[in-house]
Every structure is written in C-alpha cells, then in structure tokens.
Specification:
Elements lengths: L1 H18 L2 H19 L1 H21 L36 H37 L1 H15 L3 H12 L3 H10 L2 H15 L3 H8 L4 H37 L11 H9 L8 H27 L2 H4 L2
Helix pairs in contact: 2-3, 3-4, 3-12, 4-5, 4-7, 4-8, 4-10, 5-8, 6-7, 7-10, 8-10, 9-10, 10-11, 10-12, 11-12
Length: 311
C-alpha cells in the first residue's frame, strides 16, 4: 500500500516537474493559444503576431550581446560602407560602424522613449480625465478648454515645437512626445466617465454614502481601463514614429546614442551613391516595431470589445 502511494506521489512530482520544463511550458502555451483562437478568431492571431514582434525586439534591447558581438560606436568594425555579408549582416555605415549592431542597440533608445512617453502621458491624462468628467462644473470647462487647445495642433508639429524649446536629450524628447498624447487620454477617459457616472450602480453607490474617491476607484476606473489599455498600445506605436521623426530632422538625441531615426537621416545622404542598406534597415525596423504595437492594439480592441465577449 505504501509503495503504491509513493509511486503515485512520485508520478505527481514528476508531472509537476515536467510542467515547468521548457517543453511543458511551450505545450501549455500552444494549448492556450489554440483554445483562445477558437473563441476570438482572426483578431487573436493578429494580437499574437504583434506580441511576437514586440517580444523579439524587446529581447534584443535587453540582451544585445545575444544578437551581435559588435559595439554600435566602434568605427573599426569593418570597411567603410561595406554591403551586407556574412560578417556584417546589415553592412557598415560611412563611419565603418556595424549597422546591425546599431539596430540592436538602437532598439533600447526608441523603446525607452516611446514607452516612457506613453506612461507619462497616461499617468497625467487618465487622472485628469476621471476628475474632469466626474467633478464637472468650472473645473471640467477649464481642463477641457486647455486639452482641446492642445489637441487642435497636429501632433508632430507640437512635438517639434516642444523638442526645439527643450533641446536634445532622452528626458527632453520624452517630455516633448508625452505632451502631445495627454489630450488623447483625457478626452477618452472624460467621455467614458461622463457616461459611466450616470449608471444606476454608480448612483446607488453614492446613495449609500460611498465617498467620491471610492466611486472613482471601484466603479468608474475599472470600466475605463479596458479601453485605455488599447489606446496605450496604439499610443506607443505612434510615439515610435514621432520619436523617429524628431531624430530624423535633428531634434532628437545627441549623436553618441544609437537611434534609428538618426541613422535613417544619415543613410539618406548616401542613397544616391547606391548605399541602400544605411537607410533601408533603420526604416524597416521603425515600421516593424510600430506595426507590432499596432497589431497588439488592434487585436486587444477586438478581444476587449464587450459585444464580442458576449458571443
């Protein structure tokens, strides 16, 4: 009897151990993907494709030595403006630097600025939108006027104005990019708050004496966050393009920091000479990363759609 119990326990232990092995984790992951594919359909695969693109580039940003042995600033990496080959996958630039290494290390720059800008804009815009929609009155009118004034400017033009005023640098360009997205979060959250605060469950919470902070935190905000997640992902995709545009026109980071937009601007000068790789690969990387976050946002928009979840 004891031997039987011991064998069952050992079997359970082996099964638990196997579930934490890479093969077990991959098996569970693919079962989870297949299960949700049947529930959500094509938009599920759109989101998964976006996640894989983002995960690959994030991994290269966190562990660049796994992808390249070259230093992005090394001006003795190879021959000047050498085309792509087995040693230099993306060729070299006019300063004999390895282009592939600059793409890998440049992912840190563009991801850091875009994600940080999206976080800053959401941390400012969401609370202001909640308070404005919930409190109303003169407070709502003043905030709405300010945000509508900012929103009326084209985003890139406003970012250029702030970048020119603040000057180059990671923090400055992050602030310049973040400012243009604050009105987006504000308008979205304010509009939803105005609708949700009229719901019966919110009025009931107020009738039984719940504080305003409690109503906002427990009843209003949870119903807003799903849409905010979608906008946050799309916001990062747009911030990637904006950061690259600012660097392209010379209002981004200093020359010593690897940056895709700056490399794109530099490569443009040598395109008439037939040096296509200096402009092609930075452009492809910018589009790919922005596409990954766009696919993630579009997939989440469909999956988090309440009408879809009711099926």
């Amino acid at each position: 009897m004891n031997e039987t119990n011991d064998s069952k326990a050992a079997s359970r232990g082996d099964s638990g151990t196997r579930s934490y092995l890479p093969s077990g984790l991959f098996s569970r992951f693919f079962r989870w993907v297949s299960k949700n594919h049947k529930k959500y359909g094509a938009e599920w695969w759109i989101m998964i494709a976006g996640i894989l693109i983002i995960a690959t580039i994030v991994t290269s940003a966190l562990y660049p030595s796994l992808f390249t042995s070259f230093d992005p600033s090394d001006q003795n990496a190879g021959a000047q403006m050498a085309p792509p080959d087995g040693t230099h996958l993306f060729g070299t630039d006019n300063l004999s630097r390895d282009v592939f290494a600059r793409m890998i290390y440049g992912s840190r720059t563009i991801l850091g600025v875009a994600i940080l800008a999206a976080l800053v804009s959401s941390l400012v815009g969401i609370p202001l939108g909640l308070l404005s929609g919930f409190v109303g009155g003169w407070f709502d009118k003043i905030l709405s006027l300010v945000m509508d004034s900012l929103y009326s400017f084209p985003g890139l033009i406003l970012a250029i104005a702030f970048a020119a005023m603040l000057g180059p640098g990671v923090i400055n360009i992050t602030v310049a990019v973040a400012v243009i997205y604050i009105p987006t979060y504000f308008r979205l959250v304010r509009g939803q708050t105005l609708t949700i605060k009229e719901e019966l469950y919110v009025e009931a919470a107020g009738a039984i004496g719940a504080k305003r902070a409690t109503i906002l935190g427990r009843y209003v905000f949870p119903n807003v966050i799903a849409t905010v997640v979608v906008v946050f992902s799309l916001n990062i995709a747009d911030a990637i393009m904006t950061e690259a545009a600012l660097s392209y026109i010379g209002l981004g980071l200093s020359g010593g920091i690897p940056d895709w937009g700056m490399d794109l601007s530099m490569g443009k000068k040598f395109l008439p000479s037939g040096v296509w790789w200096m402009i092609t690969f930075p452009g492809v990387m910018i589009m790919t990363l922005a596409l990954g976050f766009t696919m993630l946002g579009e997939g989440l928009a469909e999956i988090l759609n309440p009408k879809l979840l009711e099926r």
